[in-house]
Specification:
Belongs to the glycosyltransferase 39 family. α6 packs parallel to α9, α8 packs across α19 and α11 packs antiparallel against α17. The protein is built from 20 helices and 14 strands. It is α+β, with helices and mostly antiparallel strands and 764 residues long. Among the domains are: 37 residues, no CATH class; 111 residues; 190 residues, Trefoil (Acidic Fibroblast Growth Factor, subunit A).
Length: 764
């Protein structure tokens, strides 16, 4: 390839990616080709990067000290940072990395975590909180969005003007500025996402240097960035999906026999990617939780979410301080885990007939009762023929022991039998039998199964979930939120659940009657639980609670609204001076990005259809760039956006920000296609008669200067419009004073933007 052609390729945003390469070339030839393709940033590019980085810090740090009050979700994430600094256990639906980063910043600033971030509007200065330093962390990472966007476009082989175009869209986006100026998580999420994309692009460019040190560095860096992305929020899995699809396509191409790879070589490629992009991210993700558990070792507000065993592993927890071993012949109370009622009985009996006409056993009622009462007392006795006589009569009760439960007040044993329960004919009735009646002894035997217990695990009050499984019929003692009729005093029904492995069968021994928690006890060491058990328990809770966040919110919005900026979020208001911070993107940028993605889809569809008819509307190098680069960014946008349609939880505009940055990358590739590639690579149409001859080099030389000038002019116009719209909406972004009701109303471009302090109808 001539030097002129190489120059032309670089100027138009291409390297020699279409030069035919065989993977089985010797190393010297590969290295020669790699050096011809290598497009290192020159001094001008580095200078532009420095200017863009400086501007991004200016826009992100401007007014960062205002307001001096807690804003929006700072109430959550600032509070969590304080908990870390006090080593107090808390529960959150998001992974721990970003919150630990805030805590680390607080530690460096000398902050001790004394402030609780209880309410929006609480004053930072009065409470001596280094809030500017805490906000500086996300602001710094937010400023680096711009740098990373520019570098991603440069490393993807695009010209400087295209990279500036992409970076400017990120630089002047009001939503990205607003979100990254506060103590919130999205700054870390998007930063690590962009680090992942940049690292993977650098790795992909080294396919002619496979298994070199540099190749391994960028592969592992990609994996580490993936792990950090997931460590901020679970939606980091969308980044994993993006890279995963790209890797699968890469492996599919390597499998092509024309690439000249042997299966042994292919397996080496597969193993390397598995290590770098599966093992490494998982290890990084798990390590963040290891640090989480290591730091949060003291009882706190998150205890109630966790299992008794988990709570017992925390310093100062009630489960550790007030749990007692349970022994045979102890009298206890049993509380149902899910509904918090006590196992209860009394002298009253089931009626002869129920409302549906069924006949009952007329046995003594066994119910669930929510209050402390003497009728909740049960003595635990060893079951005959199942008790090892070598054990002391007051031995501790262990996992899988067989017991009888004697109701103290009525002097009867708990029993269940093959009789339908009052409210659920599919389940068994629970009743009792007199202690001196052994005729149905086997029906009074139950086995104690401690959750996650082993043979020598001792049953303790407050610190073990247990299931009581009936020996004769194998049903589990169970209750649920359903009241008995008047004859049952509106107490909760208790019955036998045939599905005895359900977690709703869990009960807790609440106390041993006669033991006083204030009596001297030996100091207890926190319980030791394997890391993976703690991790999986927390992971399950995070997923279940995250999906349960369905409570309506005044500023929630659906995914269909986000790309079009239909609705924002009110972050903060100051009624005295009529100021507000309203999360709203740069409308020009957002709508331009949507239009660009529509153009990309249209161009690709037209190209596919045309090629089916034997036409070549797009030059091959340009087409390859669209399919390889633009489609990668489009795929990233789709993976970070479309899955939200499948979520049932409450959603907000800020959930779209990772997809927004991806859409800006798409917009820049479309700009490159429309205003640079389309002229620098003249259209070639196959199937037309040979009488149509074009002197391509001459046309190229005539138009190239004009096109470069035109592309720069168009990019400059778009950037200045973006800058102007950013300035226009900046008072809502920074919360600065000076807007009267008429000014606010002028910024309400859509009726759905529910800004505060707008003039009432007819005032203007």
């Amino acid at each position: 390839m001539s030097e002129n052609n190489q120059v032309r390729l670089r100027q138009s945003g291409h390297t020699e990616s279409e030069e035919p390469i065989q993977e089985n070339l010797d190393d010297k030839k590969k290295e020669a080709i790699f050096k011809r393709r290598e497009n290192k940033p020159d001094v001008a590019s580095k200078a532009i990067l420095a200017v863009l980085t400086l501007l991004s810090f200016v826009t992100r740090f401007y007014q960062i000290d205002y307001p001096t009050q807690v804003v929006f979700d700072e109430v959550h994430f600032g509070k969590f940072a304080s908990y870390y600094l006090k080593r107090t256990y808390f529960f959150d639906v998001h992974p721990p990395l970003a919150k630990m980063m805030f805590a680390g910043m607080g530690y460096l600033l000398g902050y001790d975590g004394h402030f609780e971030f209880d309410n929006i509007g609480d004053d930072y200065i009065k409470n001596d909180v280094p809030y500017v330093g805490l906000r500086a962390l996300p602001a710094t990472l937010g400023a680096l969005f711009v740098s990373l966007t520019y570098m991603i476009m440069i490393e993807s082989g695009y010209p400087i003007i295209t990279a500036i175009f992409a970076a400017a869209l990120v630089l002047f986006d009001n939503a990205l500025i607003c979100q990254t100026q506060l103590i919130l998580l999205d700054s870390m999420l998007v930063f690590f996402m962009l680090c992942t994309f940049y690292s993977y692009i650098r790795f992909s460019k080294l396919h002619l240097r496979e298994f070199s040190n540099e190749w391994w560095v960028w592969l592992i860096t990609t994996g580490v960035s993936l792990g950090l992305t997931i460590g901020v929020k679970m939606v980091g899995l969308f980044t994993v999906m993006t890279i995963g699809v790209a890797v699968l396509i890469d492996l599919w191409n390597l499998l092509d026999i024309n690439r000249g790879l042997t299966m042994t070589q292919f397996r080496k490629h597969f193993a390397a990617r598995a290590i770098g992009l599966i093992v490494v991210p998982i290890s990084v993700y798990l390590f963040t939780f290891y640090l989480h558990f290591l730091i949060l070792n003291t009882s706190g507000p998150g205890d109630a979410f966790m299992s008794p065993a988990f709570q017992e592993s925390l310093l100062g927890n009630e489960m550790n301080l007030q749990s007692f071993e349970i022994r045979f012949n102890d009298t206890i109370t049993l509380k149902h885990k899910d509904t918090s009622v006590f196992l209860h009985s009394h002298f009253e009996r089931y009626p002869l007939r129920y409302e549906d006409g069924r006949i009952s056993s007329q046995g003594q009622q066994v119910t669930g009762y929510p209050y402390n009462d003497i009728n909740n007392y049960w003595r635990i006795k060893p079951a005959k023929n199942f008790f090892d006589t070598s054990r002391p009569e007051n031995d501790t009760i262990k996992h899988r022991d067989y017991i009888l439960l004697e109701h103290i007040v009525t002097n009867s044993h708990l029993l269940t039998h093959d009789v339908a329960s009052p409210l659920m004919p599919t389940n068994q009735e629970f009743t009792t039998m007199p202690v001196d009646d052994d005729s149905r002894y086997n029906e009074t035997i139950f086995q104690v199964l401690i959750h996650d217990g082993e043979t020598d695990t001792v049953w303790k009050t407050k610190s073990n979930y247990i299931r009581l499984i009936h020996y004769d019929t194998k049903v589990a003692l169970w209750t649920y939120n359903s009241e008995l009729p008047e004859w049952g005093f509106k107490q909760q029904e208790v019955n036998g659940n045939k599905n005895n492995v359900e977690k709703s069968n869990f009960w807790i021994a609440n106390e041993v009657i006669g033991k006083n928690f204030t009596e001297p006890v030996e100091p207890k060491e926190p319980r030791k639980i394997p890391f993976l058990l703690k991790y999986f328990e927390l992971q399950r809770l995070m997923i279940s609670h995250n999906s349960g966040l369905t409570k309506p919110h005044p500023y929630s919005s659906g995914p269909i609204n986000w790309p079009f900026l239909i609705r924002g979020i009110s972050f903060w208001t100051n009624n005295d001076d009529k100021q507000q911070i309203y999360l709203l993107g740069n409308p020009f940028n957002w709508w331009l990005a949507v239009a660009s993605m529509a153009v990309l889809v249209g161009v690709l569809l037209a190209d596919v259809i045309s090629r089916r008819r034997g036409l070549e509307p797009i030059n091959k190098p340009v087409r390859n760039r669209l399919y390889n680069s633009a489609c990668f960014f489009f795929l990233a946008w789709a993976f970070h956006y479309i899955p939200f349609y499948l979520m049932g939880r409450s959603l907000f505009l800020h959930h779209y920000l990772p997809a927004l940055v991806c859409s800006y990358l798409v917009a820049s590739t479309v700009f490159n296609f429309m205003f640079i590639n389309s002229v620098n690579y003249p259209v070639s149409i196959s199937g037309i008669g040979s009488n149509m001859s074009i002197n391509r080099p001459k046309i190229h030389l005539v138009l190239k200067a004009g096109v470069d000038h035109l592309s720069v002019t168009i990019a400059t116009i778009i950037i200045f419009i973006s800058f102007g719209v950013y300035l226009y909406f900046s008072p809502l972004t920074y919360g600065t004073p000076g807007l009267d009701p008429a000014d606010i109303n002028g910024r309400r471009w859509l009726d759905t933007w529910d800004l505060h302090y707008q003039p009432k109808k007819g005032e203007i």
